[in-house]
Amino acid sequence: MHREMKARDLRVSWLQKMGPLAGLLLIIILLSTISHDFLSMSNIFNVLRQISINALLAFGMTLVILTGGIDLSVGSILALSGVLTAGMMGMGIEPWLASLIGIIAGAVMGSINGLLITKGRVAPFIATLATMSLFRGLTLVYSEGRPIISDDYSFVIMGQGYFLEIPIPVIWILICFFVLGFILKNTPFGRHIYALGGNEEAALLAGIRTVGVKVAVYTLSGIFAALAGIILTARLSSAQPTMGTGYELSAIAAVVLGGTSLTGGKGWITGTLIGAMIIGVLDNGLNLLNVSSFYQQVVKGAVILIAVLLDRSQKT
Amino acid sequence: MNHIERGITITAPLLSMVGIHKSFARVHVLKHVDFTLQAGEIHALLGENGAGKSTLIKVLSGIYSADQGRIHIDGKEQVFKSPRAALVAGVGVIHQEFNLVPHLSICENIFLGREHLFGRGWIRWRKMRREALLWLEKIGLLVDPSCKVGELSIGQQQMVEIAKALSFDAQILVLDEPTAALTQSEKKALFATLCRLREKQVGMIYISHRLEEIEELCDRITVLRNGESIGTRMTKETSMDELVGLMVGRKIQEQFPRELTIKQPAERLRVEGLTQQGKVSQVSFSIQAGEILGMAGLIGAGRTEMANLLFGVQKQDAGEIWLDGKQIRIRHPRDAIQAGLAYVTEDRKGEGLVLSRSVKENFTLPSLASFTKGGFIRKQQENEMAEKLMRQLGIRSTGIEQKVGFLSGGNQQKVAIGKWLLHQPKVWILDEPTRGVDIGAKREIYQLINQLTEQGMAILLISSDLPEVLGMSDRILVMREGKRVALFNREDADEEKVMQAASGGGSLLA
Amino acid sequence: MMKKISGFLMVALLVSGMLVGCTSKSALENEKKDKELKVGFSLSTLNNPFFVSLRDGAQKEAKQKGAELIVADAQDDTAKQASDVEDLIQKKVDILLINPTDSKAVAAAIRSANKAKIPVITVDRATEGGKVLSHIASDNVEGGKMAGKYMLDQLGDKGKVIELEGIPGTTAARDRGQGFHKALQGHNKVKILASQPANFERAKGLSVMENLLQREKDVQAVFAHNDEMALGALEAIRAAKKEIMVVGFDATEDAVKAVKKGTLSATIAQKPEEIGKQAVDISMRASKGEKVKEFYPVSLKLVTKK
């Protein structure tokens, strides 16, 4: 009986980890045979730069989902932080300081989510559904519904510049990826996140400050969303009040594609990065192949479904 | 086949399973098991965890199909392709977890999926109600069938399950650990119902760990061990010792190996006036170093609530706690752990363990801080500790990275206890530490508890298993309705006195 | 249980208080300006500068002509628009201006206005059901044609072109695209290399353009179904250090600035303020019993540097 369990245990975890990667490779191979422009160095960096926004949101979302929660407000946090940052710069504040203010705003918004969920005992879905609308509304109020231009060179470089031939947004996601991966694997905080998602009651009884961990996780999600908002603003040289609408769904899709369980406790950050890449590569490939707008949505939906179904069949 | 029974009936058996064989990935879980059940008989199926009881039942109820062997019901051969097919052929199974929809009424639950209809879509409420009432009367549950199932007690819900099974014209009823969650009076009611069904010629297979119950209720007993059927005995002609011997394959001299070891009396833990509004009121007690204080009481007497209060899971409304003579404040489990308390909860899967994580991670969860340096977990040290602990506790798993969810019940319980050992606690709260654990593992857990007391740790042992409380405790505190109602010394306590106190018949003297 | 009941009581009190407050206030107002026309305006969204300008135009006109304008923002939510329209009917407006979030979904709301005998004028987006007094909108097909013709002039009748489409299935995307393709018809030396959706969003316009530039190294012009996408495409072109003519649509504040700066070649100005103004104006005329036409196309204009 034990041998059987071991084999199954190993097979499940191996497939769960390799499944998303295999899927990504399959899509890449498929696209590179159809389109010759696909595998060029410049296109690879292009795709990486494009996924940076979704990847950052999905990183935060991974932490939240690992605790068994969900954060629907990330798109709105992205917008409000971006608009605030651009607005501050418009008032003559230094770009770095404005960005810091944007990040802090993201942290505050995230912690509001966390407190609503823990102290207010509101279900994560409901709490963040409400703040999604709330933060979006504040974005519109602050910007009066109009885009705010921010074309200061030292700021714009954060989204458009290069460091050693590598786009700066790509460097951002690599830094966040390694730091997060390390935190999840090697620190008590990371362990606590997994334990909390696996069994909240057991985590509490093991002396983990579950409230603190949750608030921290939503705060981090807010910070990542704010960072994404600032990078997007820099990429566009302006902050749009409507930017980030619907991004929470792409982030959730990336997390799920990466094999992280929506019920919490199981998952990894590498999977999320791969999930974000799958979405990015698909978007890029569909553009390169000039697929008609109606079919694009069909293809994207089908890929997500296939990935999730494959994942399901491995687990049972 | 050398244990043919002559005594109950000579007629052909209601159910006969012959040469049932089942293996998973080359592991033989059932090895040519024979089993017979007469009409009007309660037949106990006994065995340790992993002996093959559940597999045999799953074969009988159509969840698994056997690799070899035959099943005859009323002399007719049956091959079940699905649980539904088994049900239709007259095999009803009452699982430990009920298959009831709490928001629906009793009547709706009984007829779920096969409602009486007028033509298409119109439900014949009146007819369903009438029939439901009939079935409820048959088992002696006098409740309005339009009551929502969620509003019933656990015992009553179980009765509904039985009624539901019977309404399929079940001649064979399988009961899997039916008393695990029942109170004393509910248990009595259940037994009365089962006896009534026995008179109506229903054949019943009764699975339980509790030998006393089996002795009281069952006519015959079949023991399984390692997938083989070891033997069948008439209850009247066997003894507990023999049964235990058959189950374990060796003789267990005494079930509760408690040796009194309080070397010098020194108060470890003192609790005064612990109160949580509406749940626990003014409970006081103390435990010496090396002492086991048993805590008895009926379900709902406030014992688990007491433990949660002591450990900081719930907020205390009043009360003081002293540890080694110093007063401590506990507002969060973290405070309790730091002070030196450990808590093994009643509900392992629900509260004690993170099933989706590894043995190692579960072990080190409460004491992660001691493996952390500069904010990072020291993996090597952690691995070494986990390996050591696993060997020490004799946990059977593929390694420290195996997910706890894949371990057997006894091994899970060892992890749940073991995770506190790294922490060297001073006081242990053990809530039902042996529930659902087989006899062999039970003994190991008792020995572990003894070792803990030898090291001067104080233990609060909460248990609904009276022989266990009486056998293991140095003193026994009885709770009722959130209050402490009695305290006995080991010598003065017996089952009757404790039960009396717990159910309200005893004196209020301490 | 007590808590629940007292909670209900509180809510009931609050609501009734608010109702009393509202009714007494409006009653007063009605006494004061008895003859003031009450116009209800259900907008699809204010989450977009275009509609903000449209509202501003309507408000200005209403103020000037002495009408009361009640604006409701549906936040791009068809369900919210339905209840907005219900609310406006309850407020007993004399005429309803509706800027539908969705041509199909709005039909039910318009029917209920029909039932309440309140005349309806649709603005910017048309409806596919219900009775409508008139429709006011800029002519998107004409605008698309305008953009196409301008592009042909600038390119000298030959070159390679990319089209960035709006949200698939929307009328604006359909009409603007249709006009653009019509304009290019018969000009065989102008080739459309790709038509890809970027959902009217700036960020999406940027990434789709980035992707297309990976494949198409030799592009002379881009037509985007709105300015947001056009400005996004401009960012991509700038980052790729290319010289490509971009034509947008809508003439938003940002886009007009970009045209003045010379980065955006041209944009088609819808005149949202003009649409808003005309909407109120036609409501006034209709309420005086004048006969109104079925459709008032609001003219568009090409905005270039000169």
Q: Biggest sheet of chain B, strands in spatial order?
A: 6-9-10-3-11-12
Largest sheet of chain B: 6 strands, mixed
Radius of gyration of chain B: 25 Å
Could you estimate the helical fraction of the residues of chain A in percent? over 70%
Walk me through the structure.
- The complex is a heterotrimer of chains A (316), B (510) and C (306).
- Chain A has 316 residues and is mainly α.
- Chain A has 13 helices and four strands.
- In chain A, the strands form two sheets. Chain A has a two-stranded antiparallel ribbon with strand order 1-4. Chain A has a two-stranded antiparallel ribbon with strand order 2-3.
- Mean pLDDT of chain A is 86; it is low at 1-11.
- Chain B folds into three domains: 1-90 and 202-249, P-loop containing nucleotide triphosphate hydrolases (Rossmann fold, 3-Layer(aba) Sandwich); 266-340 and 425-510, Rossmann fold; 354-424, no CATH class.
- The model of chain B is unreliable at 1-9 and 506-510 (pLDDT under 50).
- In chain C, helix 2 (49-65) packs parallel to helix 10 (272-287), helix 5 packs parallel to helix 6 (171-184) and helix 7 crosses helix 8.
- Chain C has a six-stranded parallel β-sheet with strand order 2-1-3-4-5-11, sandwiched between helices. Chain C has a six-stranded mixed β-sheet with strand order 7-6-8-9-10-12, with helices on both faces.
- Chain C has two domains: 36-132 and 273-298, 3-Layer(aba) Sandwich (Rossmann fold), CATH 3.40.50.2300; 140-269, Response regulator (Rossmann fold).
- Chains in contact: A-B, A-C.
- Chain A: This is Ribose ABC transporter membrane protein.
- Chain A: It comes from Marininema mesophilum.
